[in-house]
Amino acid sequence: xADITHLRASSLPLAFLCPxxxxxxxLRIVQSNDAADVxxxxxxxxxxxxxxxxxxxxxxxxxxxxxxxxxxxxRFLCARANSLWSRVQGSFPDAVTEVPFSDQIGxxxxxxxxDIVSLGEEVARAADWKTGHKDSDYKxxxxxxxxxxxxxxxxxQEASCTLLWVRDQDVETYRxxxxxxxxxxxxxxxxxxEWNGAFYPGHHCGYCPRSHxxxxxxxxxxxDVAAIADxxxxxxxxxxxxxxxxxxxxxxxxxxxxxxxxxERVRQAIKKHVERHGDIIANGLRLTIDTETRRSIDVLKAxxxxxxxxxxxxxxxxxxxxxxxxxxxxxxxxxxxxxxxAVRALxxxxxxxxxxEPKEVKRLVVKRA
Length: 369
Hints:
Elements: E1 6-8, H1 12-17, H2 34-45, H3 47-52, H4 60-66, H5 71-88, E2 96-105, E3 108-119, E4 123-130, H6 139-152, E5 158-165, E6 170-177, H7 178-193, H8 215-228, H9 231-239, H10 246-277, E7 280-282, E8 285-287, H11 299-309, H12 312-318, H13 323-334, H14 339-352
Parallel strand pairs: 1-3, 4-5
Antiparallel strand pairs: 2-3, 3-4, 5-6, 7-8
Helix pairs in contact: 2-4, 2-5, 6-7, 8-10, 13-14
C-alpha cells in the first residue's frame, strides 16, 4: 500500500530524483517567490496568444498586478514567448489552454494541468511554458503529461509534450506511445510510489518542500558549508581557478549557491524578527533596522525649475526614462484595443531616432548541457 495517494505531474522531476520529496512534510512551509509570481502571470497572459493567435498587450499590466509580478519582467517574457510561439504554433492546431487531467496509477491519483493541448485522432500534442532558465530537467513532468493524455482517450496511440523555454528560445520534446506508456507506469510505481525509504540528496534539495526537516539534506548543507568555508578552496577559486577541472568548478559553484541561498533565508528571518520585536543586543553587538531617508523629485512639479536651469544635454544626464513605463503611458492614452498599436508606433519612432541603446547585462547562470 502506497503512503501517498495523490501526486501532481509537476512534482515528478524532483520525485524521480528523490522519492522522499513526494511525501508530505510534517511541517508545511509556504514561501513567496518572485520568479514563481512572474511565471504565473506570464502563463495567464499567454492564454490569448495560444487561443487567438495574438497577445493582449493591454491586459498584461492588470495580470501582472493581480499576481504581484514585476511588470517589466512580465512584458519581456511575454514578448519572448510571442516570438517562440510564432515558430511552433503550426504544430499545435486548434490548441486549447490550461486543460486539467487526472488518472489513477496503482494506488496514486496522478493529476496535472497542461498549458497547451492539441488533440488529433490518434496523436495528441501538449506544450508547457518554462519561464525560468534551462537549468533543470523536466523530462518526467513532460512524460507524465504524455501519460495523462494517453490515459484520457484509448484511441490515442501517441502523445508528445514540448517544453517551451521562453528565455532561451529553445524547445525540448518528449514522446510516449502505448508501449512506452506501460514501461513508464511501471517505472513510476517502482521508483516513486513503492519507495524503499532511501534518500538521494543533491543540488535538487534546494527545491524540495521537505528540505527543512530532512536529515540527508541537512547533512549535505553542512558538507557544502564546510567546503565553502575552507580557505584553501576559496584561494584556489580566486587565484588558481585555471588549474581546477570543469567538474570541480561546477561542483564548487553549486555548493556556493546552496550556502548563499540558505544564508539569505537566515538573514531574512532575523531581519523580520528584529522588525517585529525590536533590537537584539548580544556579544557586544546590536542588531537593528537602519532606516535611510532618500530624497526624490516629483518630476511634474520640478519640471519648470529644471527647464529654467538646465539645458537639454544637462537634463539628459539627470533623467532616466523607463521604456516599459513609457509604453504603459502610451498604451493607456490610446485606449483599450489600441494600446498594442500605439506601443509599436512609439518603438518605431524611437528606433528611427536612434534613441534606443541596447545594453548587455552579463550574469552567470546555470543551464543544462
